[in-house]
Amino acid sequence: MTAALTGGDLRLIGAALAGILLAVLMIVRGRLHPFIGLLCGAFTVGLLAGLPLPDIAKAVQKGVGDIIGGTGLVVALGLSLGAMLHLSGAAAALARAALGVTGVRAAPWATLGIAIVIGLPLFFETGLVLLLPIVVAAAEAMAGPEDADRDSARLRLIMPALAGLGVVHALVPPHPGPLLAVEALGANLGRTMLYGIIIAIPTAIIAGPLLARVTTRGVRLAPPVMGDHQLAIATPALSLSLLIVLLPVLLIATGELGQLLPGLTGSTALVAASNPVVALLVTNLLALPLLFGRRLREAAIQDAVWHETMGAAGAILLAIGAGGALKQVLVSAGLSDLLARVVLMYAISPLLLGWLVAVGIRLAAGSATVATITAVGVMPGVVASSGVSPELVVLAIGAGSVFFSHVNDPGFWLVKSYVGTSTADTFRTWSLLETTISVVGLVLVVALSHVI
To answer: 267: domain range?
Structure first.
């Protein structure tokens, strides 16, 4: 393979690897925030690839601006919606109601379904913080003192919830990561949602309830470090809570119907409402009165909602903005064109290539969203030259973006803190779960490519 690559190609590959390695060392060993590490990695890639410094700076600014201006709005609105569902007790009420109906035997399947539904409109960390304390409490109550392996029984309830959050994070719009990929690659949102759901359900079953039967044996749990905090207000009705959770999905799906039936009365408004920013903004505006009632104007409630939103948004937006900078520098240096040529020369599957690029960035940077941003940024040339379905490339990249969560992933430490596993057992349970989602997801994407 290397024989067909020019000296400039090898220099570009070396520059990309060196920049990513520097970012990893700064984040993991230097304990710096990913925002700083990724920015330094972006400048390193540009300098080693031979780009003039002013051009690198412009690429960095463009990359950050593109991501914050597009995906940043979706992330921020998703975080605010998550804060409302959390602080009002709506998500907790939904989870407890579902678990109360199913009982102990079907509880793992119930937590899987709850996580998929609640996780759809939310950023991964938001869904994790919102749902895990509820599931942990339910697992504590359901695993009675007579249970011979109480900790394993609790984990068999908790792990399916993590699987549900993980699959929607990787594969199903309107989650912010897949939405970003849809926009960047020009994929059809409706088809991506349909394909994503088809792949996500069996993937979640394998990575959740089935895998948990093996990975949870003998695991011992410490008391969770983190707990749940809510406002002292009346819990909203279950029907209203479910409506708020599903409304963004319904708006987007209805908008796709409006595109298919342009003569339908009000189809223009339906199509406009399917825009993810519009869908989430409408949901936020409805969530305030429906979840908080007359108390929505109280300063304490407003302060709590927006304080929780902004605290999470700052770190997330900085990290994904820096990921956008690294992506843009890689594109400006010519990596996208290089990958397109490699695919044509060696008949590499674009689906496998997109997955591998996302896996590499995921292992290096830790963030699934940063992995998605970087991978989709260098894949448009490949998609255009190969004629592969952009919807399937979106899903392949999404699957690769969650491969093997480890110490440079904030989600790894959130799971460890909320569940109470040791570091070694977090690798054994959570990291293996994410890897299973990634590999099974890729296999199903490839299988679907032979069907459609």
So the answer is: 7-220+227-450
